[in-house]
Design a protein that fits this description.
single chain; 286 residues; alpha/beta; five-stranded parallel sheet; 18 strands; 24% helix; globular
């Protein structure tokens, strides 16, 4: 039986789940908790609430409504997206295959600012180890990050690269990295290079020679996941059509990750559209 996997339990993801569940399609929402909505103390511009409502209460109500319709919620961090027999989301709790996948993880409001990252993107700075590891066979690479997402990138690079160094940028690692990975916890001051990456400069002046740098801070954002399977992105947003479908058949996106107005109403609308269109696409296949 067809099934749908939704990454993200915010307004866009839960809205999509309401529509896929009502269409009779088994739906799993992958959630790591938190999100921008939980940080909103008072919401006064959303339809149906005569008095201000907290983001936490609105989120709780939305999830409760989806659970009432039979939507399954799994606490797991998405670290990868690929295609096996079907679209498959890789998470810290295992793999979740789906005939359709909807990305609704929002978009990071803060991007770490390190000199050289933007300038050398596509010239040795990468956001997808699975996509680009092949180009660094036998060469030294650096992964920027400290958690499960960084571990996922490290594991993709180890069988290919000559060496892998993890730079945590001033924080302690929160994942267990293989012994063969060199772990440096100093702050990172710059990615250096001319036409191509040549290395990473630490705050104490030390330079780590590297042919490639893989950015994996925090958790995998929506655009990071989309890039892993080859979906088009533009300025850190996922490119979608009027049906909220990405450039990869069966892969949809909704909410802040598609750009534009960063508002709950827009996220709910796009989630409803993505859920409806995903259900339609599965019916056409049946």
């Amino acid at each position: 039986m067809s099934q749908i996997v939704i990454i993200g339990s915010g307004p866009a993801g839960v809205s999509a789940a309401l529509y896929t569940a009502r269409a009779g399609i088994p739906t799993t929402v992958l959630s790591r908790g938190g999100g921008a909505l939980l940080k909103a103390e008072k919401i006064e511009n959303y339809y149906g609430f005569p008095e201000p409502v907290s983001g936490a209460e609105l989120m709780e109500r939305g999830i409760a409504g989806a659970k009432r319709l039979g939507v399954a919620f799994v606490e797991a961090e998405a670290v990868g997206l690929g295609f096996e027999e079907t679209l498959t989301v890789e998470t810290t709790a295992g793999k979740f295959p789906g005939d359709c996948v909807i990305i609704a993880t929002g978009n990071p409001r803060v991007t770490p600012k390190i000199a050289g990252v933007t300038e050398l993107e596509g010239h040795g700075v990468s956001y997808c180890a699975i996509c680009d590891a092949f180009f660094y066979r036998g060469r030294d690479v650096v992964v920027l990050g400290s958690g499960e997402y960084a571990l996922h990138e490290v594991e993709a690079l180890l069988p290919v690269a000559g060496s892998v160094t993890l730079c945590t940028d001033g924080v302690e690692p929160t994942a267990a990295f293989p012994e063969k990975v060199r772990v440096l916890t100093q702050k990172v001051s710059a990615i250096e290079g001319g036409d191509q990456v040549e290395g990473v400069r630490l705050a104490d002046g030390t330079k780590i020679p590297a042919a490639g740098v893989f950015v994996a801070y925090g958790v995998a954002g929506s655009a990071d996941l989309a890039r892993k399977i080859g979906a088009a992105t533009e300025k850190n947003r996922i490119v979608v059509d009027e049906h909220m479908m990405t450039t990869i058949p069966g892969l949809f996106a909704a909410g802040d990750c598609t750009g534009g107005l960063l508002q709950i109403a827009k996220a709910v609308f796009e989630g409803a559209t993505a859920g409806t269109e995903a259900a339609k696409s599965l019916r056409r296949k049946a």
